[in-house]
Design goal:
Helix content of chain A: 55-70%
Shape of chain A: elongated
Structural class of chain A: mainly alpha
Oligomer: homodimer
Number of strands of chain A: 2
Distance between the termini of chain A: 68 Å
Radius of gyration of chain A: 24 Å
CATH architecture of the domain at 1-56 in chain A: Orthogonal Bundle
Strand content of chain A: under 5%
CATH topology of the domain at 1-56 in chain A: Multidrug-efflux Transporter Regulator, Chain: A, Domain 2
Number of helices of chain A: 7
Chain lengths: ~140, ~140
DNA sequence: GCTTGACCCTGTAGTTGCTACAGGGTGTAG
DNA sequence: CTACACCCTGTAGCAACTACAGGGTCAAGC
Protein backbone atom coordinates (compact mmCIF):
# COMPACT_ATOMS: atom_id res chain seq x y z
CA UNK A 1 0.00 0.00 0.00
CA UNK A 2 1.35 3.43 -0.91
CA UNK A 3 1.03 6.33 1.45
CA UNK A 4 -1.85 7.90 -0.48
CA UNK A 5 -3.86 4.70 -0.29
CA UNK A 6 -3.19 4.29 3.42
CA UNK A 7 -4.13 7.91 3.96
CA UNK A 8 -7.43 7.71 2.11
CA UNK A 9 -8.25 4.37 3.75
CA UNK A 10 -8.02 6.06 7.15
CA UNK A 11 -9.31 9.54 6.22
CA UNK A 12 -5.93 10.99 7.06
CA UNK A 13 -3.80 13.43 5.11
CA UNK A 14 -0.59 12.15 3.60
CA UNK A 15 1.41 14.76 5.50
CA UNK A 16 -0.16 13.62 8.74
CA UNK A 17 0.87 10.02 8.10
CA UNK A 18 4.46 11.16 7.56
CA UNK A 19 4.17 13.31 10.66
CA UNK A 20 3.08 10.32 12.76
CA UNK A 21 6.08 8.42 11.48
CA UNK A 22 8.40 11.29 12.32
CA UNK A 23 7.21 11.51 15.91
CA UNK A 24 7.48 7.75 16.30
CA UNK A 25 3.78 6.95 16.51
CA UNK A 26 3.72 4.89 13.33
CA UNK A 27 6.59 2.52 12.51
CA UNK A 28 8.61 3.36 9.39
CA UNK A 29 7.45 0.99 6.64
CA UNK A 30 9.54 -0.78 4.03
CA UNK A 31 10.45 1.18 0.91
CA UNK A 32 10.06 0.33 -2.75
CA UNK A 33 12.96 0.66 -5.17
CA UNK A 34 11.71 4.16 -5.92
CA UNK A 35 11.96 4.97 -2.21
CA UNK A 36 8.18 5.04 -1.83
CA UNK A 37 6.77 3.95 1.52
CA UNK A 38 5.18 0.50 1.28
CA UNK A 39 2.64 -0.15 4.04
CA UNK A 40 1.16 -3.45 5.19
CA UNK A 41 -1.99 -4.43 7.07
CA UNK A 42 -0.34 -3.87 10.45
CA UNK A 43 0.21 -0.22 9.54
CA UNK A 44 -3.39 0.12 8.50
CA UNK A 45 -4.53 -1.34 11.83
CA UNK A 46 -2.18 0.92 13.77
CA UNK A 47 -3.19 4.07 11.94
CA UNK A 48 -6.88 3.20 12.27
CA UNK A 49 -6.35 2.89 16.00
CA UNK A 50 -4.59 6.23 16.15
CA UNK A 51 -7.26 8.00 14.11
CA UNK A 52 -10.09 6.57 16.10
CA UNK A 53 -8.45 7.54 19.39
CA UNK A 54 -7.81 11.03 18.00
CA UNK A 55 -11.44 11.27 16.90
CA UNK A 56 -12.39 10.49 20.48
CA UNK A 57 -10.27 13.46 21.47
CA UNK A 58 -7.30 11.67 23.01
CA UNK A 59 -4.07 13.64 22.78
CA UNK A 60 -1.19 12.12 20.82
CA UNK A 61 0.54 11.48 24.13
CA UNK A 62 -2.48 9.52 25.37
CA UNK A 63 -2.62 7.66 22.05
CA UNK A 64 1.02 6.76 22.47
CA UNK A 65 0.30 5.31 25.92
CA UNK A 66 -2.75 3.43 24.67
CA UNK A 67 -0.70 1.94 21.84
CA UNK A 68 2.02 0.80 24.24
CA UNK A 69 -0.57 -0.68 26.59
CA UNK A 70 -2.44 -2.39 23.77
CA UNK A 71 0.74 -4.16 22.71
CA UNK A 72 0.96 -5.99 26.02
CA UNK A 73 -2.07 -8.25 25.77
CA UNK A 74 -1.48 -9.94 29.16
CA UNK A 75 -1.43 -6.70 31.11
CA UNK A 76 -4.43 -5.66 33.21
CA UNK A 77 -6.50 -3.11 31.38
CA UNK A 78 -6.74 -0.89 34.44
CA UNK A 79 -4.33 1.66 33.00
CA UNK A 80 -6.35 1.84 29.79
CA UNK A 81 -9.51 2.43 31.76
CA UNK A 82 -7.78 5.11 33.79
CA UNK A 83 -6.57 7.03 30.73
CA UNK A 84 -10.06 6.94 29.28
CA UNK A 85 -11.63 8.13 32.54
CA UNK A 86 -9.20 11.01 32.90
CA UNK A 87 -10.02 12.00 29.35
CA UNK A 88 -13.74 11.76 30.02
CA UNK A 89 -13.38 14.05 33.02
CA UNK A 90 -11.49 16.47 30.83
CA UNK A 91 -14.25 16.46 28.22
CA UNK A 92 -16.85 17.04 30.90
CA UNK A 93 -14.93 20.00 32.25
CA UNK A 94 -14.67 21.46 28.74
CA UNK A 95 -18.38 21.02 28.17
CA UNK A 96 -19.31 22.83 31.34
CA UNK A 97 -16.81 25.61 30.61
CA UNK A 98 -18.31 26.08 27.16
CA UNK A 99 -21.84 25.95 28.51
CA UNK A 100 -21.02 28.76 30.95
CA UNK A 101 -19.46 30.68 28.09
CA UNK A 102 -22.54 30.22 25.97
CA UNK A 103 -24.78 31.48 28.72
CA UNK A 104 -22.74 34.62 29.13
CA UNK A 105 -22.36 35.22 25.41
CA UNK A 106 -26.10 34.72 25.00
CA UNK A 107 -26.72 37.37 27.61
CA UNK A 108 -24.26 39.75 25.96
CA UNK A 109 -25.78 39.28 22.51
CA UNK A 110 -29.30 39.55 23.88
CA UNK A 111 -28.51 43.01 25.20
CA UNK A 112 -27.70 44.36 21.72
CA UNK A 113 -30.23 46.98 20.70
CA UNK A 114 -28.95 47.33 17.11
CA UNK A 115 -27.87 50.94 17.55
CA UNK A 116 -24.44 52.42 16.96
CA UNK A 117 -21.21 51.14 18.40
CA UNK A 118 -21.28 54.13 20.77
CA UNK A 119 -24.03 52.56 22.81
CA UNK A 120 -23.48 48.94 21.88
CA UNK A 121 -23.98 46.80 24.94
CA UNK A 122 -21.65 44.12 23.63
CA UNK A 123 -18.74 46.53 23.38
CA UNK A 124 -19.72 48.05 26.69
CA UNK A 125 -19.75 44.66 28.38
CA UNK A 126 -16.26 44.01 27.14
CA UNK A 127 -14.93 47.27 28.53
CA UNK A 128 -13.30 47.73 31.96
CA UNK A 129 -15.49 47.21 35.03
CA UNK A 130 -15.38 50.82 36.27
CA UNK A 131 -16.61 52.04 32.88
CA UNK A 132 -19.59 49.74 33.29
CA UNK A 133 -20.12 50.82 36.90
CA UNK A 134 -20.15 54.49 35.93
CA UNK A 135 -22.92 53.84 33.42
CA UNK A 136 -25.15 52.28 36.06
CA UNK B 1 2.07 52.06 35.46
CA UNK B 2 4.82 49.51 34.89
CA UNK B 3 4.19 46.33 32.95
CA UNK B 4 4.02 44.18 36.07
CA UNK B 5 1.33 46.40 37.58
CA UNK B 6 -0.69 46.42 34.36
CA UNK B 7 -0.33 42.67 34.14
CA UNK B 8 -1.52 41.98 37.67
CA UNK B 9 -4.35 44.52 37.32
CA UNK B 10 -5.68 42.50 34.39
CA UNK B 11 -4.71 39.00 35.53
CA UNK B 12 -2.36 38.73 32.58
CA UNK B 13 1.23 37.53 32.45
CA UNK B 14 3.91 40.09 31.70
CA UNK B 15 5.06 38.08 28.69
CA UNK B 16 1.53 38.06 27.35
CA UNK B 17 1.30 41.85 27.57
CA UNK B 18 4.52 42.15 25.58
CA UNK B 19 3.19 39.56 23.15
CA UNK B 20 0.02 41.60 22.57
CA UNK B 21 2.17 44.60 21.86
CA UNK B 22 4.31 42.64 19.43
CA UNK B 23 1.32 41.44 17.42
CA UNK B 24 -0.11 44.95 17.36
CA UNK B 25 -3.08 44.36 19.64
CA UNK B 26 -1.91 46.74 22.34
CA UNK B 27 -0.32 50.08 21.39
CA UNK B 28 3.35 50.51 22.40
CA UNK B 29 3.38 52.72 25.50
CA UNK B 30 5.79 55.51 26.38
CA UNK B 31 9.09 54.52 27.95
CA UNK B 32 10.79 55.73 31.10
CA UNK B 33 14.42 56.84 31.07
CA UNK B 34 15.34 53.28 32.03
CA UNK B 35 13.47 52.02 28.95
CA UNK B 36 10.67 50.58 31.07
CA UNK B 37 7.21 50.54 29.51
CA UNK B 38 4.98 53.23 31.09
CA UNK B 39 1.28 52.49 30.68
CA UNK B 40 -1.70 54.82 31.11
CA UNK B 41 -5.39 54.31 31.78
CA UNK B 42 -6.14 53.83 28.09
CA UNK B 43 -3.85 50.83 28.03
CA UNK B 44 -5.55 49.40 31.08
CA UNK B 45 -8.96 49.81 29.41
CA UNK B 46 -7.72 48.26 26.18
CA UNK B 47 -6.10 45.29 27.86
CA UNK B 48 -9.16 44.74 30.04
CA UNK B 49 -11.24 44.63 26.88
CA UNK B 50 -8.88 42.14 25.29
CA UNK B 51 -8.81 39.90 28.35
CA UNK B 52 -12.55 39.88 28.74
CA UNK B 53 -13.10 39.07 25.09
CA UNK B 54 -10.50 36.29 25.34
CA UNK B 55 -12.25 34.96 28.46
CA UNK B 56 -15.41 34.78 26.37
CA UNK B 57 -13.47 32.64 23.93
CA UNK B 58 -13.04 35.12 21.07
CA UNK B 59 -9.94 34.47 18.99
CA UNK B 60 -7.27 37.16 18.87
CA UNK B 61 -8.36 37.88 15.31
CA UNK B 62 -11.95 38.45 16.49
CA UNK B 63 -10.67 40.62 19.33
CA UNK B 64 -8.73 42.68 16.82
CA UNK B 65 -11.91 43.24 14.79
CA UNK B 66 -13.93 44.07 17.87
CA UNK B 67 -11.31 46.61 18.94
CA UNK B 68 -11.33 48.25 15.51
CA UNK B 69 -15.13 48.36 15.50
CA UNK B 70 -15.31 49.69 19.03
CA UNK B 71 -13.12 52.64 18.03
CA UNK B 72 -15.71 53.89 15.57
CA UNK B 73 -18.49 54.94 17.92
CA UNK B 74 -20.80 56.19 15.16
CA UNK B 75 -20.80 52.95 13.23
CA UNK B 76 -23.76 50.60 13.42
CA UNK B 77 -23.12 47.80 15.84
CA UNK B 78 -24.33 45.21 13.38
CA UNK B 79 -20.83 43.95 12.66
CA UNK B 80 -20.18 43.55 16.38
CA UNK B 81 -23.37 41.60 16.79
CA UNK B 82 -22.44 39.44 13.82
CA UNK B 83 -19.00 38.55 15.19
CA UNK B 84 -20.55 37.61 18.51
CA UNK B 85 -23.21 35.49 16.86
CA UNK B 86 -20.71 33.63 14.70
CA UNK B 87 -18.71 32.96 17.82
CA UNK B 88 -21.78 31.75 19.67
CA UNK B 89 -22.59 29.35 16.84
CA UNK B 90 -19.03 28.11 17.04
CA UNK B 91 -19.33 27.48 20.76
CA UNK B 92 -22.59 25.65 20.26
CA UNK B 93 -21.04 23.43 17.65
CA UNK B 94 -18.15 22.64 19.99
CA UNK B 95 -20.53 21.80 22.80
CA UNK B 96 -22.50 19.38 20.71
CA UNK B 97 -19.32 17.80 19.34
CA UNK B 98 -18.04 17.30 22.86
CA UNK B 99 -21.38 15.96 24.06
CA UNK B 100 -21.33 13.36 21.28
CA UNK B 101 -17.77 12.51 22.25
CA UNK B 102 -18.76 12.11 25.87
CA UNK B 103 -21.57 9.76 24.96
CA UNK B 104 -19.27 7.58 22.93
CA UNK B 105 -16.49 7.61 25.48
CA UNK B 106 -19.02 6.77 28.19
CA UNK B 107 -20.11 3.78 26.18
CA UNK B 108 -16.52 2.69 25.59
CA UNK B 109 -15.61 2.98 29.27
CA UNK B 110 -18.81 1.27 30.33
CA UNK B 111 -17.83 -1.78 28.31
CA UNK B 112 -14.60 -2.30 30.27
CA UNK B 113 -14.74 -5.56 32.21
CA UNK B 114 -11.46 -4.95 34.09
CA UNK B 115 -9.73 -7.95 32.55
CA UNK B 116 -6.47 -7.98 30.65
CA UNK B 117 -5.60 -5.78 27.71
CA UNK B 118 -6.06 -8.83 25.48
CA UNK B 119 -9.81 -8.65 25.87
CA UNK B 120 -10.11 -4.98 26.80
CA UNK B 121 -13.17 -3.57 25.10
CA UNK B 122 -11.70 -0.08 25.05
CA UNK B 123 -8.66 -1.20 23.07
CA UNK B 124 -10.89 -3.35 20.90
CA UNK B 125 -13.17 -0.44 20.15
CA UNK B 126 -10.21 1.58 19.02
CA UNK B 127 -8.99 -1.10 16.65
CA UNK B 128 -9.84 -1.33 12.94
CA UNK B 129 -13.44 -2.04 12.01
CA UNK B 130 -12.82 -5.46 10.43
CA UNK B 131 -11.10 -6.65 13.64
CA UNK B 132 -14.25 -5.69 15.52
CA UNK B 133 -16.46 -7.34 12.93
CA UNK B 134 -14.48 -10.57 13.11
CA UNK B 135 -15.09 -10.75 16.87
CA UNK B 136 -18.84 -10.55 16.39
C1' DG C 1 9.29 8.34 -27.32
C1' DC C 2 7.72 12.14 -25.13
C1' DT C 3 4.81 14.91 -22.52
C1' DT C 4 1.27 15.53 -19.02
C1' DG C 5 -0.43 14.81 -14.69
C1' DA C 6 -0.88 12.42 -10.51
C1' DC C 7 1.53 10.77 -7.24
C1' DC C 8 5.84 10.28 -4.21
C1' DC C 9 10.24 12.18 -1.58
C1' DT C 10 12.75 15.45 2.02
C1' DG C 11 13.01 19.39 4.69
C1' DT C 12 11.50 23.59 6.51
C1' DA C 13 8.36 27.09 7.96
C1' DG C 14 3.77 28.47 9.24
C1' DT C 15 -0.53 28.17 12.25
C1' DT C 16 -2.71 29.83 17.51
C1' DG C 17 -1.86 31.89 21.78
C1' DC C 18 0.90 32.07 24.49
C1' DT C 19 5.09 30.49 27.85
C1' DA C 20 9.86 29.91 29.08
C1' DC C 21 14.23 30.73 28.94
C1' DA C 22 19.03 33.24 28.23
C1' DG C 23 21.57 36.95 29.09
C1' DG C 24 21.51 41.17 30.22
C1' DG C 25 20.06 46.14 32.83
C1' DT C 26 17.57 48.92 36.86
C1' DG C 27 15.89 50.20 41.33
C1' DT C 28 15.40 49.89 46.20
C1' DA C 29 15.66 48.03 51.03
C1' DG C 30 18.55 46.70 54.66
C1' DC D 1 27.03 47.52 48.87
C1' DT D 2 24.77 43.78 47.92
C1' DA D 3 20.85 41.07 47.39
C1' DC D 4 16.60 40.74 45.20
C1' DA D 5 12.67 41.92 42.56
C1' DC D 6 11.65 43.79 38.70
C1' DC D 7 12.49 45.34 33.75
C1' DC D 8 14.57 44.71 28.74
C1' DT D 9 15.28 42.02 24.02
C1' DG D 10 15.27 38.02 21.39
C1' DT D 11 14.63 33.35 20.52
C1' DA D 12 12.80 28.73 21.07
C1' DG D 13 9.27 25.74 22.67
C1' DC D 14 4.30 23.61 23.20
C1' DA D 15 0.13 20.68 20.24
C1' DA D 16 -1.02 18.70 16.16
C1' DC D 17 -0.81 19.34 12.29
C1' DT D 18 -0.66 21.97 7.41
C1' DA D 19 1.56 24.02 3.55
C1' DC D 20 4.91 24.92 0.76
C1' DA D 21 9.53 24.48 -2.10
C1' DG D 22 12.08 21.88 -4.92
C1' DG D 23 12.79 17.86 -6.43
C1' DG D 24 11.92 12.39 -8.31
C1' DT D 25 8.70 8.45 -10.36
C1' DC D 26 5.31 6.29 -13.06
C1' DA D 27 1.36 5.24 -16.10
C1' DA D 28 -1.52 6.86 -19.87
C1' DG D 29 -2.27 9.01 -24.09
C1' DC D 30 -0.56 11.21 -28.46
Amino acid sequence: MKIGELASATATKVETVRYYEKIGLLAPPARTSANYRAYGKEHLARLSFIRRARDLGFTLEAVRELLTLSDDKARSCEAVDSIARVHLADIERKISDLAALRTELDRVIGSCRRGTVGDCKIIETLGPKDARASVI
